[in-house]
Amino acid sequence: MTALVWDQVGERLYETGVDRGVLYIPDDTGVYDEGFAWNGLTTVTESPSGAESNAQYADNIKYLNLLSAEDFGGTIEAFTYPDEFGQCDGTVDAKPGVQIGQQGRKVFGLSYRTRVGNDIDGTDHGYKLHLLYGLQAAPSEKAYATINDSPEAITFSWEVSSTPVPVTGYKPTALLVVDSTVVDPAALSDLEDLLYGTGGAPGTEPKLPTPDEVIALVGP
Question: What CA dihedral angle connects 59, 65, 68 and 73, to 10 degrees?
Answer without folding.
Answer: 160
